[in-house]
Amino acid sequence: MKHSSKKWALGTIFAAIAGFTAGILTAPKSGKETRKDIKEATLNSITETEKQLKNLHTQLTELINETHGKFEVVGDKAKKQLDEALAKAKRAKDKARELLSAVHEGDAGDQDLQKAIKEALEAVDHLKTFLEKPDSKN
């Protein structure tokens, strides 16, 4: 996913939440109905964010496994870059797993989820960029 795609995806999520919230708050409903709608919207938002985080966790797992095979064919400079990319990917994957557990326990905030998604997207991009480079001995 390119940098602009990340911004677009996060922007879309925030715009949908803001639009839905504005619509609910201006709708002619009782307070009880409005609170119920807000709670449902929040749960839907968390569910969608959780799905995205699970998808990124899976992508990171696949990319990490694919990247391990590259260690045998790269030069020293590339090996160092690959090692750094793998370390970042593993941290992002672990954080995603921790936050997915926290979501199920009700302990994860939206900011935490968004930060984990951002870090996971960056790690996926970094590994994909490395894997797209032609094999060379640097």
The CATH architecture of the domain at 40-132 comes to Up-down Bundle
Helical residue percent? over 70%
Total helices: the number is 4
CATH class of the domain at 40-132: Mainly Alpha
CATH topology of the domain at 40-132: Single alpha-helices involved in coiled-coils or other helix-helix interfaces
**Runs with pLDDT <50, length 5+?**
none
Query: How many β-strand runs?
Result: 0
Largest sheet: none
Structural class: mainly alpha
Mean pLDDT: 75
Shape: elongated
Strand content: under 5%
CA radius of gyration: 19 Å
Secondary-structure element order, as H and E?
A: HHHH
What distance separates the N and C termini?
Answer: 27 Å
Task: Describe, in plain words, how this protein is organized in 3D.
There is one protein chain. The protein has 138 residues and is mainly α. It has a domain at 40-132: Single alpha-helices involved in coiled-coils or other helix-helix interfaces (Up-down Bundle). 83% of the residues lie in helices and 0% in strands. The chain has 4 helices and no strands. α1 runs antiparallel to α2. The mean pLDDT is 75.
How would the blueprint of this fold be written?
Blueprint: H1 3-26, H2 31-68, H3 76-105, H4 110-132
Highlighted features:
elongated, 138 residues, 4 helices, mainly alpha, Single alpha-helices involved in coiled-coils or other helix-helix interfaces
Give a nutshell description of this structure.
The chain is mainly α and 138 residues long. It has helices at residues 3-26, 31-68, 76-105, 110-132.
